[in-house]
Recover the amino acids of this structure.
């Protein structure tokens, strides 16, 4: 299984699963997708029953309409209309941890967004809703839940006529190994004593100040 970023409609048509990721510029990024034919490709894929997953800003794009007077100031903008939901941006940022059980599997995630999605139909999905093979969630990090991730990828593989053997790798153990590798590199190639001195006592007096954004 391979994960890659795509920028052409043809690549969307050939994928087993298309993921619309989170964004800090939902309306602008949706316009970018429309300009390049990617939005039409996603809609055509969904019409054929091809799996599509929207996460946070990606979920917002899948909704029927988006009212954004906060992030982009664009007002009312049509979404892709692939999920029975609407979006309204607020000035307060939502920040919270989430947990639930889906199809017998525990799922955890976190929310960080201004856009509030209101589902107006469809079926339940952790942090959102789904309609057919189109899923949307406001939760980041849902793929860190191993059982849920494996169950979802089995559905994706079955829809593509493929078999899926997830193995026994867990996200937590993989992340721990990567953190250990990073720590070893820092220990081998960084003056950790100097770093600790900066943490304990601050920067030496007389250092020149370089303002943010300076060349």
């Amino acid at each position: 299984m391979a994960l890659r970023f795509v920028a052409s409609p043809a690549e969307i048509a050939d994928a087993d699963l298309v993921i619309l990721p989170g964004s800090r510029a939902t309306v602008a990024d949706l316009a970018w997708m429309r300009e390049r034919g990617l939005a039409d490709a996603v809609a055509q894929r969904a019409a054929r029953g091809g799996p599509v997953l929207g996460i946070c800003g990606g979920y917002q794009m899948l909704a029927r309409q988006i009212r954004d007077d906060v992030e982009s100031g664009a007002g009312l903008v049509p979404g892709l209309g692939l999920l029975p939901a609407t979006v309204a941006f607020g000035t307060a940022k939502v920040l919270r941890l989430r947990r639930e059980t889906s199809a017998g599997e525990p799922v955890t995630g976190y929310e960080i967004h201004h856009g509030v999605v209101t589902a107006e139909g469809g079926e339940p999905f952790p942090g959102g809703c789904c309609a057919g093979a189109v899923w949307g969630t406001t939760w980041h990090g849902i793929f860190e839940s191993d059982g849920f991730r494996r169950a979802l990828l089995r559905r994706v593989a079955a829809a593509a006529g493929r078999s899926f053997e997830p193995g026994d790798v867990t996200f937590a153990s993989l992340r721990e190994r990567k953190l250990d590798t990073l720590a070893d590199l820092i220990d081998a190639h960084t003056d950790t004593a100097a770093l600790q001195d900066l943490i304990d006592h601050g920067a030496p007096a007389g250092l020149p100040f370089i303002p943010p954004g300076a060349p």
Notes: The longest strand covers residues 85-102.
